[in-house]
Amino acid sequence: MRVLLLALLLLAPTLAAAQTRDVKPGELTLSVRLEYPDRPVIEGALVLLTVHGTYRRHITLESLTQPGLDGFNWFQLGEDQWYETTERGKRVKNFKRRIALYPNASGPVTIGPFVHELTLTDESDDWFAHAVASAPLTLDVDPASAGEDWWFPVRDLKISDSWSNPPDQLAPGEGVLRVIRLEAVGASPDMIPEMPELTSPSAMIYPHPEARLVELSPEGPVTIAFWRWTIQPTNAVSAIVEPIDLRYFDTATGQFHDVVISAQRIAYDAAEPAPDAPAAAQGPARLSGLPTALAALVAMAAGLYALWPATGLSLAAARRRIPRLDPLERGIVRALRDRDARGLRRALAARAKADGLAPPPGLARLDRHLFAARPDPVDLDLAARERSVAPDI
Question: What is the pTM of this model?
Answer without folding.
Answer: 0.62
